[in-house]
Amino acid sequence: MTIEFIFHILGLIVVASPAVLLAVLGLPMLLGRPISESIQSNFTKAAVLTGLTAAVCILGMMLVFDSRHVVIELGNWVAIPQEHFHFHLKFVFDRLSVPFTILSFVLCGTVGAFASVYLHRETGYRRFFLFYAVFLLGMVISSLAGTIETLFLGWELVGLSSDLLIAYFHERPGPVRNGHRVWTVYRVADAAFLIAALTLHHLTGAGDFDGLMGTGPWPEGVAAVDSWHAFLVGLLLLVAAAGKSGMVPFSGWLPRAMEGPTPSSAVFYGALSVHLGTYLLLRVSPLLEASLPLSIAVIVLGLVSAVFGALASRVQSDVKNALAFASLTQVGIITVEIGCGLRYIALIHMIGHACLRTLQLLRAPSLLKDYQALENAIGEHLSTSPSFWEKVIPQAQREWLYRFSLERGHLDGFLDGYIVRPFVRVFRWCDQQERRWSRFAGGGETRESDRVAVDGDSLEDVV
């Protein structure tokens, strides 16, 4: 039995464990015979431990045998010779993907154990763990993806489970509306991602990351495209990363995502999903070295997002929203580190921040109770001393910053007014002309019902 064969077996176990969990949890629900909470919880723990053990074994073997780049190929699943397109399922185990996969298993296992108690006897207990399995599978596929199509598959699974868990309490209109909002913002990021994938196919003839970043192991790869093409593809991927990680100008969906249960908020927007955009930037980091303007754009976006997150987190009225914007601050700093070429520092920062933020969000439900108990024990409210910024910034500017932060930078209004409304007006105008043309071609007269308004509303009114 060769070392390569053992690598392949362990790699397949890593990918198969969340897929088997999804099948075990999903099939009984489809057949109308759902399993009990205890069985569901035990299956989840077994799948996470199996995948985690296999991933740790792979990491140990990579360190012992100095293997920096192990590839597992599962063949072409879709091939269109006329269009020179193929969907190649390929997984890469290297210094970036293996630590992030282990992180995914550890944090998903922690949140799963917490949720099995936190959501006990909840009406949607089985539904939560089904979406949880979809998310875990999406994170593993995204982490190990060796082609841009494979990454997009995992990317979509993460986005789908995110939207469904935001709308978990679907009896109320608020969670459903916010879930739609987040899904719509994800569509913008996915559109940029797809355009980048098509551009990559046009440039290299395939979707393999090796064709874009060279054959060297991460982070030693060198971009195989010129600076202009690197800037074009990198800018599209930067938009995709900004949408997935909630960076400016897409930060408005972060507080809306807190409508979901606390366990999903912890693993999505404190730990893993919110870092998926920065993980994408790390994966394509050789592009940043090939294009100085792209590196500058990444640094600027990270700085703006970090400052905005720091301001917004200080004026939130609940702890989950404050932690969500605090996560945005750290994601912005990680993005700056990536733009500066500090790849290992960014990876370590990402892992440490994900672990810390997960524990903070899981602690959030009992934090207020403990805070009140502390005040009762002391006999007075806990006082806070003025910060450095309160001493150096004049009162008028501090009031403006407070209103600006409370309105979350007016980003929602900006997107609604300058992006959503123009698109909606164009689409409604096209619909109006189509109705008129259809009526005219049919020999009838234009009816009043064929005329639709062309004035767009906010994104909430559209979705």
Question: What's a concise summary of this model?
Answer:
With 463 residues, the chain is mainly α. The protein contains 19 helices and two strands.
3D architecture notes:
The protein folds into 2 domains: 3-368, no CATH class; 413-462, no CATH class. Helix content is 72%, strand content 5%. It has 19 helices and 2 strands. It has a two-stranded antiparallel sheet with strand order 1-2. The termini are far apart.
What topology does this entry show?
Blueprint: H1 3-30, H2 37-65, E1 69-80, E2 85-94, H3 97-118, H4 125-144, H5 148-166, H6 173-204, H7 209-213, H8 227-245, H9 253-256, H10 262-271, H11 276-283, H12 286-290, H13 292-313, H14 319-339, H15 343-378, H16 388-392, H17 395-406, H18 411-441, H19 459-462
Antiparallel strand pairs: 1-2
Please compute the radius of gyration using only Cα atoms: 24 Å
Fraction of residues in β-strands: under 5%
**Helices and strands, in N-to-C order?**
HHEEHHHHHHHHHHHHHHHHH
Query: What is the tally of beta strands?
Result: 2
Question: How would you describe the shape?
Answer: globular
Neighbour order of strands in the largest sheet: 1-2
Give the end-to-end Cα distance, rounded to a whole number of Å: 56 Å
Tell me roughly what share of residues is in helical segments: over 70%
Largest sheet: 2 strands, antiparallel
